[in-house]
Amino acid sequence: MSTVSRTTGTPEVAPSTRSWPVLLVVVCAQMLIWLDTSILNVAVTTLADPVDGLGATPGELEWVASAYTLVVAGTLFAGGALADRFGPRNTLLAGLALIGVASGAGAFVDSPAWLIVARAFMGAGSGLLMPATLTVIMQSTPEEKRTRAIAIWSSSSGLGVAVGPVAGGALLSHFWWGSVFLVNVPIVALCLLAVMAVVPDLGGSRRRVLDLPGLALSVLGLGGVVYGIIELGGGSAWYGPHVLLPLVLGGVVLAVFVAGQRRSATPSLDLRLFRQPGFTAGSVVLLIAFMALAGHLFYAAFYLQGPRGLSPADAGTVMIAAAVGIVLGSQASPALSRRLSDRWTVASGVLATAVTYVAYAWLDGRTPLWFVAVLLWIQGFGMGLVGTPVTAVMMRGVPPQLAGAGSAVNSVTRQVGGTLGVAMAGSILSGVYRDRMADAELPGTGQVLSPAAEQQARTSPEAARSLADSLNLPDLTTTADHAFLTAMHTTTLAIAALALIGCAVAATGLRTHTTPEHKNT
Questions:
Q1: Which pTM value belongs to this model?
Q2: CB under 8 Å, gap of 24 or more: what pairs does 262-267 form?
Q3: Is the C-alpha dihedral spanning 94, 126, 510, 376 positive or negative?
Q4: CA separation (Å) from 144 to 101, 148, 152, 518, 520?
């Protein structure tokens, strides 16, 4: 049962015993977002396979991942506004329903282009869902328990990362590639029933009007930047029109978007939020941390199923280590924040991830899998230390009437970071691989391989391995694996440099003090 606060005028759930069942349901719904993201990591090599998958090119795979996160980022502002206007429960139900319908349709498409469209609609559902979950927590959890609730909410990413690869690997071992999307449908159905049964109708805290022009500008601007980055990885020169034009236009559109938000009476991005101490620095840290993580997971999946030769199920099992680390790090972060402060907890977490990214530059096809699992665990633990303190710092100073908008910004930074990270990592990975393969003497050249086959082998390592299997050319697989490892080493060092920048921002920008909320948690 909800009541209205006399001081803020916002709905809140008074009985503390009611808040924990609500938190459980909300975390399960939030976990669906991470499940939908992580399950794709073990499916990328299958989708790239021209026989068992859709024969997707590296650029198309980047768009399969980026279309989801790009649309999530664009619709999160709408999700925050809708949660504030119509209530988070209704927005949560709408987001879940859209994810279910889009997932069912995406399982049966017959081309990468249609899969990209389906992923975009899945992203729209997630964009409605994500800010609603955090808004429910902020309005239904007593203040003294809020930090712990946020820690549990952050742990949902670890659970999704754990379940996604394992479930995806098991499904791909027995069914066709579409099963990794179809599995969302029954999960969505259970979440819908649970939300209707447990989550109270908190109502809307204010009548916000949707800023449709602003939403359109944000999506178009981000889309232009991402398109330019992906085209750069596709072999276009940085000064070519396919790269420079979308990058410049995307940047200009984003600048127009920000300028318009400053003057709008009903902005999608409420710039007043950035006046709060720590909100800006926290947003930058989240952006960089998730940019690095998403980029890393993109090439890590190819590494495990490529040079290491693991099946999707085995690769998913190895990646459980990262999920366990995220869960443990999220749960340990409140205690570490009390001891070290939010600032140094976050900085140490980002630094730990940077160390693991650097270590990937020494991995090869014979590196013990236990060592890879240890790196993934450290990486996950570091990310677990980041999410909860940063979210607490950002939301601590947000007025209750702007909870939906603040939740949306918190979530947008994660999704924009993921989009840019996949685009950047995929671009570097593809570019270096092609350069290495262009200089390499391919086994079978002039005898078995036609010019078209040579071009296929130089497109991606997955295409080269498929070709090598069909023509019985194991040396071609070895050549492609060596080229991929060189590309991965270059990419991971770039990701590590990015993470170190995030560490510096956390150390210098998150100058916060322990609050009563921390002490009572």
A1: 0.70
A2: 264/211, 264/214, 266/81, 266/208, 266/209, 266/210, 266/211, 267/211, 267/214
A3: positive
A4: 38, 9, 14, 8, 6
Measured CA to CA in angstroms, residue 424 lies from 64, 233, 366, 443 at distances of 14, 8, 27, 30
Task: Give me the helices (H) in 208-275, please.
Answer: 212-233, 241-263
Q: CA 467, CA 476: separation in Å to the nearest integer? A: 8
pLDDT for residue 92: 84
pLDDT digits (tens, 9 = 90+) for 219-275: 788 777 777 766 665 555 555 677 788 888 888 988 888 888 777 776 767 777 777
Return the pLDDT at 498.
93
Say whether 449 sits in a helix, a strand or coil: strand
* Cα gap 360→358, rounded to integer Å: 5
Give the span between the Cα atoms of 206 and 204, in whole angstroms.
6
Pairing mode of beta strands 11-13, 2-4: antiparallel
Average pLDDT over residues 403-410: 68
pLDDT in tens, 109-148: 888 888 888 988 988 888 788 777 777 777 676 666 766 7
Please list, in sequence order, all residues whose beta carbon lies within 8 angstroms of the beta carbon of residue 277, skipping any fewer than 6 positions away. 397, 511, 512
Name the residue among 305, 222, 369 with its Cα closest to residue 53: 305
Which helix or strand (DSSP H or E) is residue 2 part of? strand 2-4
Residue 56 phi, psi dihedral angles, 5° rounding = -70, 140
Q: Shortest CA distance to 252 belongs to which of 228, 278, 234?
A: 228
Whole-angstrom CA distances from 22 to 159, 194, 196, 384 are: 18, 9, 11, 22
> What amino acid is encoded at 426 in this protein?
G
- Rounded to the nearest 5°, which phi and psi values hold at 508? -100, -25
The residues with which 445 forms a beta bridge, in sequence order, are: 449
Question: 484 with 307: CB under 8 angstroms?
Answer: yes
What gap in Å lies between CA 520 and CA 455, rounded to an integer?
63
User: What CA dihedral angle connects 397, 215, 423 and 123, to 10 degrees?
Assistant: 90
Which phi and psi angles does 12 have, rounded to 5°? -150, 155
Tell me how far apart the alpha carbons of residues 374 and 356 are, in angstroms, rounded to a whole number.
9
CA distance 342 to 396: 12
> How many angstroms separate the CA atoms of 178 and 162, rounded?
20
Helix axes 474-509, 461-471, angle to 10 degrees: 160
Please report the pLDDT score of residue 220 as a whole number.
80
The span from the CA of 503 to the CA of 509, in Å, is 10
301-to-46, 60, 117, 324, 426 alpha-carbon distances in Å: 11, 16, 23, 17, 12
